[in-house]
Each structure stands twice: as structure tokens, then as C-alpha cells.
Amino acid sequence: MELFPIHLLFIVVLTNRYILGPFLRRLKGKRFERVDDTYRPRVAIVVPLFNEGEGIFHTVRALLAQDYPRELLEIIVVDDCSRDDSVAWANKAAEGHPNVRVMSNPENLGKRKGINRGVKAAVDAEIIVSVDSDVVVDRSAVRQLIRRFVHPNVAAVGGRTFVSNRHQNWMTRMIEIKFHFAQQWLKDLERSFRQVMCLSGCLTAYRRHVLLQLEPILEARAIAGVPIKYGEDRFLTRQIVKHDYETVYTLDAFCFTAAPSTLAGYFSQQLRWRRSNLVDLLSGLSHAWRLHPVITVHYVSQLALLLAYPVVIVHNLLTGEFWDILAFHFLVIGLLGFIYRMETRHLPEDRRVPGASFLPMALLMPVTYALFTPLALLTLDSGSWETRGSPTAAPAPAASPAKLTSSTTSEGTPS
């Protein structure tokens, strides 16, 4: 009985994510996403680079294949002192393309400051598209993002991410389904009020003047005097909303990236994301009341559940009721797996995975909540990129750009 408030939190979050959000999307119909095909601004794509190796070549080549007027498109790669051959691969991709620039930071500055440097360099651009260095962007992605800037108050438009290695093993199959719900369902409530609280750096477009306006805030981000290099995407999106701009998300602009294929990689990612969630949700409490009331309730309930859920896990372990909560997890996850299978049944076999692939999440969810939420709270002042190893790590071996053949050229979709 003492856990009733937590059960209530769970119901509120579940309702907002899986019932109210999709209901509002269907209720609004065509009004849910407005587009303007007459808007053709100058665009600069900024790619922060750190120890990506050959992957940056495929990223740049996919960006060069965009169906957006080439005379209006510039690509700026900003290397953050990579210790592998990333710069060589970036220069290889830029050969013969005067609209591609490769810049190098004088010292390791972190992803956000690297992006800010690219934004300053794009003096002629009206829109900045941020793309991570490990993604391959669909050919129509830039155009689909740009056509969502239907009003001057729309400051950012984000796209979705697909898992390129979805069939590699049980882990990547599970993450494919997790990505499906995170993007196909969970953002619907925020999209309904044009206050999407997290737009991924994998693929998001911003008005340049808004990024310049927020630059002092972004540059000064720190905890206990330690500059923070994780969660930049979520922090930036929240600052945009805080300054009364609209944020939009579309499923029509998308890219592909490789998901972690090992438990170590997955746990590292989840710890980084947990820190980001906690820092952002806690910091945003001071102005959450300025959001739409429905979004405010959703925002506060997510934070409360995030903090309370580990207590539930520990409580069930101590009282011998862990198997009950585990059974409940399997029931919910199994239902979601069935829904995923129904929603993707029209896709080719290579573009979907079995619905049962989501079942491992029923065990990983309580484990990651119980362990990583407390750990994240104790390590909020981490200053590492945490995505390509530390700047002092030894570089991973990679093929030489000189050995590149035409078979490695990306066409904007995964092989």
C-alpha cells in the first residue's frame, strides 16, 4: 500500500507515453505536422568529429548526396583532436567538393564547443543541421527537416534514428525495438504541443541565430566547476524551449547508426544517458511551470518516476517480491513486442526484427534502473565525451584512406 504513489506515477507516465500522446496525434490528423515547401534557406551541416576513423567518410559522402540544392548547402567537419586517422578520412571525403570544410580544434573542447565553432564559421547559413559523425543520413533528410520550419518561432526540427546493425545479435535486435517506441510513440505528447524536450544530435536542424543567442549558456555549462560534455542535445533543446521557441520532431527525416552490440557498450550508453536525463530534468524544474500544463505534468512525473523506480526495485528485493515485478515487466514488454510486430509487419524482413527480441529488456530495465540511477547521481560531474574513449586513449587500428575503393562509397542508406 505504501507504494501506491509510485504505482500512480507509473500509470501517469505510461498513459502520457502510450495513450494520450498517440491519441492527440490521431486527433489532429494532418494538422499534426505542417510543412512549407517554398522555404529554401542556406544550410550548413556541422559534424563534430572525435576518433571516428573511416566512419566519417561515409557520413560526409551521404551528406553530399542530399537532394537539397548544392549551391545552398555547406558541410563543416570539426575535429576535436582525434588520435586516430579520422581527419585523413574526412579530407578524403572532402576531395573535389569545395562545399566541404574540415576544421581542427586547437585542443580537445568537447562536442558542444566543437559544434559552436562550426556554427560561427557558417556565416552565410540561416539553418544549421547537426549530424553525428557515426551516422549515415537518408538522402531526403535535410529537405524533410527544412520544410518543417513553417513559422519564425520554430527554432529546431529533429529527425529519427534507425539501427543499422539491427540483425547483429540479440542486443541490437532489442535496441531496434526500443528505438521504435522511443521515436514512434514516446514523443507524440510533446510533438502535439510543439515542445519536444530532447532532439537528438544524430540529426537535428536549428536556426543559426538561436544557437548564437544561446552560445554563452551552452559554453558555460558545468557542474561543480567541471565542464560537462555529455547530454548536450537534451540541454540545448531544453534551453530552446525555455527561451519560448518551438521545437518540432518528424519521422520523415531519418538517419542510420550502429547500436551497441555488447552489454559493456550498452551499459556505458545507458549510464551516460541516465546522467543526461537526471541533470536535465533536475535543472529544468525551475522553469518547468512555463511549459504547457500537460507537458509540465509529464515532465515532473518522468523525473519522479526516474528517482523512485530504483527504490521500488530495492524494496521488492528486500521483501522477496522481485519475481512479481519481474513478471510484470515481462508482461508489459511482451505486449510492446507484439505491438511492434503488428506495426512493422508491412516492412521487408531485413528492416524489422522478431517482436520477442524485446523480451531481454524486461530483465535489463530493472537492473539498469537499480544500478545506474544511483551511480549516475554520484558521477554527474563527469566531463568525458564517453563515446569514443578519452582523449588520452590509444587510437584503434583502422584502414588507411588510401586503400579506399568505390565499393565503400555510401549512398545514404545502410548496406
UniProtKB/TrEMBL annotation:
Places the protein is found: Cell membrane
Keywords: Cell membrane, Glycosyltransferase, Membrane, Transferase, Transmembrane, Transmembrane helix
TM region positions: 296-316, 322-340, 361-380
GO MF terms, alphabetically ordered: hyaluronan synthase activity
Origin: domain of life: Bacteria
InterPro entries: Nucleotide-diphossugar_trans
Any single GO BP term: hyaluronan biosynthetic process
Keyword Disulfide bond found: no
A UniProt-annotated Pfam family: Glyco_tranf_2_3
Gene3D superfamilies: Spore Coat Polysaccharide Biosynthesis Protein SpsA, Chain A
PANTHER family the UniProt entry points to: HYALURONAN SYNTHASE, MANNURONAN SYNTHASE
Name of the featured protein: Glycosyltransferase
Organism: Corallococcus llansteffanensis
